[in-house]
Amino acid sequence: xxxxxxxxxxxxxxxxALSDGALLRLAGDWRGRASxxxxxxxxxxxxxxxxxTQDLTHxxxxxxxxxxxxxxxxxxxxxxxxxxxxxxxxxxxxxxxxxxAPAxxxxxxxxxxxxxxxxxxxxxxxxxFVGEVLQAAARALRGRTAMRKADFMHQLQATGPxxxxxxxxxxxxVGLILAYMGAAQLQRFGAQIYMADLVTIGVVREIAAxxxxxxxxxxxxxxxxxxxxxxQANEEIDALQSMGLxxxxxxxxxxxxAMLLVAPLLTTYAALVGMLAGLLVAVGIYDVEPIxxxxxxxxxxTLSHLGIGLLKGTVYAVLVALAGCRQGLxxxxxxxxxxxxxxxxxxxxxxxxVVAASALTMMFQRLDW
Length: 369
Fold this sequence. Notes:
4 strands; 67% helix; single chain; 4-stranded mixed beta sheet; alpha/beta
């Protein structure tokens, strides 16, 4: 809006016909003036309506309302000649700006293009974040990092021992389910003892890692996103950057390394609990001797199965940490944005886990491991 002069000229408005529409020339002080002259009779719906505000000195919301009503008659209002304040008000009002009122087909294509552009932007943000984490990890290996030992130990406690309770419960119940399902089929052939092989291989190779990853996604990944999102909303991350501290090294790296360290331990613990649940079902319901069950477990458990299970559990846990920290660092600055980031972190982590599980399973099967 131009600077107020000592005496402002009275408001004036004049229409000028154009080949593809009409031009409205506005001049003077339009504060308190909300009426515009009627457009030319030959202005058809869909034609462009340009506005010349070069001589406009002042305006208020009344002029924006009048232009909005004018655009609502079917003309396509070109925002190029409007002051920035008027453009912003009309954009919020959802007026028929020329750039915002395409044909239905163009509107659909624009919406699809915008969605893909947003997805590409999120993908670039994720790749950039993963690259920064890898660079921070490389600096940590060389002893050049801002990560504090106290932060790392705190995250170890939060991700490891604090998760044992829920991991124990879920792993035990899943082990029971797997043992019941396997025994119900094997009993038809009188081969209940082989449920030990089924439970051991299934739990150690696949289920323990998968259940641990999903549990960590709901418990730890959500906590990472909420913590970092709250710091982002409170401008604490901006404060770290203003002090010359790298947020990835200071906040993300301790969480990722903690998950990397506790993942094999939690996966091993979950596998042991699942095997114990299978033992209880085999001994208590199907009258399998405990020693015989343990011998079959020992014979079926190979280094290949154990290594694959631990590798999968570690990969899933790292993906959970990356998803939680990525969503937290890129959250908005409101309570709603923090909640959205927490939800997105859990969903993204579970999707990454399922994709990684499918890819790793197919790869190991093709390699005959």
